[in-house]
Amino acid sequence: SAPGTRETKRIAYPGLATTLEVRYGDGPYLALKPEFTDIVNIAKHRMVYDGRYKLIYIPTVNGIRWELYDLLYDPMETNDVVTQDTEAFRRLARFLFEQSELAPNTEVRRGYVLPVTPTY
Fold it and tell me: Is residue 76 part of a domain?
């Protein structure tokens, strides 16, 4: 993977003990507390793969980090080629954003994939 510490590769939010709650249905299960849904959705890493290239979207507090791997030549994802293969990066980033815009209650703003509160 590309260099970086855990703190620079993610948007921080509270741990599992704070963000999860026990719910009951067909038995007890853990679920995300509603008040943490937006931050968890904002902080999610996203990925697209076209059969050769794998592009990873990593939101951070300092902006979006991108990693691109050519899995044909680098199946272990050790060499990030995002700055070398700009055509594959642009094509896959465009596809990721197009698919994100199609998802319900989601929009792309300033390069971030963000949740949108539905208006009824």
Answer: yes
pTM for the structure as a whole = 0.74
Number of domains present in the structure of the chain: 1
Residue 1 belongs to a domain: no
Helices (H) and strands (E) in the chain, counts: 3, 7
Q: Is residue 38 left, alpha or beta, with left meaning phi > 0 and alpha meaning psi from -120 to 50?
A: alpha
Length of the chain: 120
pLDDT values of the chain reduced to their tens digit, one per residue, 120 residues = 445 554 556 677 788 888 899 999 888 999 999 888 877 777 888 999 999 999 999 998 888 999 999 999 999 999 999 999 999 999 999 999 999 888 777 888 888 888 876 555
